[in-house]
Amino acid sequence: MESKSRSLVLLLLLFSCVLLAAQETSKPAAGASTFKSKCVLCHAADGSGNTPLGKQLQAADLRSKDVQKLSDAEMRKIVHDGQANMPPFADQLSNEEIAGVVKYLRVLARSKK
Ligand code: HEC
User: Fold this and answer.
1) Which domain holds residue 96?
2) Which one of 4, 74, 84, 89 is CB 3.0 to 4.6 Å from 70, fit for a cystine?
3) Any idea of the CA torsion for 3, 9, 10, 16, to the nearest 10 degrees?
4) Which domain CATH number covers 104?
5) Angle formed by the axes of helices 95-110 and 72-81, to 10°?
6) Would you say the CB of residue 63 lies under 6 angstroms from ligand 1?
7) Number of domain units in the chain
8) 44 lines ligand 1 (CB under 6 A)
9) pLDDT tens digit string along 26-67?
């Protein structure tokens, strides 16, 4: 009996760890879908900017050092307010969605081969 309840506790602990881990990753995942719906037109799925419109507007390679050296706050501001040919997203995305998509840009940069 004693050991049964102990393994139940362990199981519960394990389960909450899995839930926590899932929560931890939910932001980049939401960021990924925001990116796919709002940004790939100009920035391409891999962030390279390698699309007809991206080339025409000279969209930056989001994985490049020049872009990645920006702080999260600077990136959020660019997405919120726009910059040069980059349109503002203030009226399309919530601050939370912008924060999520910026997180996703870090993931994209890490996955560059
Ligand atoms: C209509 C095309 C277009 C769309 C859509 C677009 N961008 Fe951009 N983006 C650009 C262009 C063009 C630039 C280069 C701006 C410049 O020269 O300063 C840019 C630059 C950036 C930069 C880097 C700016 C810098 O200083 O180097 C970030 C970060 C960025 N975009 C994020 C995003 C995110 C996130 C989205 C989706 C929410 C998005 N962009 C959607 C065109 C676009």
Assistant:
1) 26-110
2) 74
3) 170
4) 1.10.760.10
5) 120
6) no
7) 1
8) no
9) 556 899 999 999 999 999 999 999 999 999 999 999 999 999
